[in-house]
Amino acid sequence: MQEYLNQLYGIGKNDRIFEITKSYLHHEMDRGSQEAGVKRIRIHDLRHSHISLLIDMGYSAVAIADRVGHESIDITYNYAHLFPSTQDDMADKLNNFRKEAM
Predict the structure, then answer these.
(1) For the chain, which residues make up each domain, given as ranges?
(2) CA distances, 27 to each of 3, 10, 18, 19, 63 (Å)
């Protein structure tokens, strides 16, 4: 947060540090979910969706934890079930290696 505040130019003690209000964001979430015909999710749920997308895009748990500010990587590992398993890939490569060696 301090890094973000340092990037703001001439911010006063009583100035807004974010351009949108919580009320506006809630209104837009309601409007968007109605328009899309989907159930409205909580604002915090967007964070979970973001983390899930980063996992799907192949980013490491360490990189994700750093981006979202998890104090410990253990928090990121709560999403462990979403990380792709490399066990099948490892087994296939070992089998191919063994076949080539014969």
Answers:
(1) 1-40, 42-102
(2) 29, 29, 16, 15, 32
- Cβ-contact 68, 50 below 8 angstroms: yes
Orientation angle between helical segments 43-56 and 22-36, nearest 10 degrees: 70
For the cut 80, the answer to whether the pLDDT of residue 88 exceeds it is: no
Q: How far apart are CA 46 and CA 101, in angstroms?
A: 49
pLDDT tier at 76, thresholds 50, 70, 90? confident
45 or 86: which leads in pLDDT: 45
Q: Output the CA angle 65-68-69, nearest 5 degrees.
A: 75
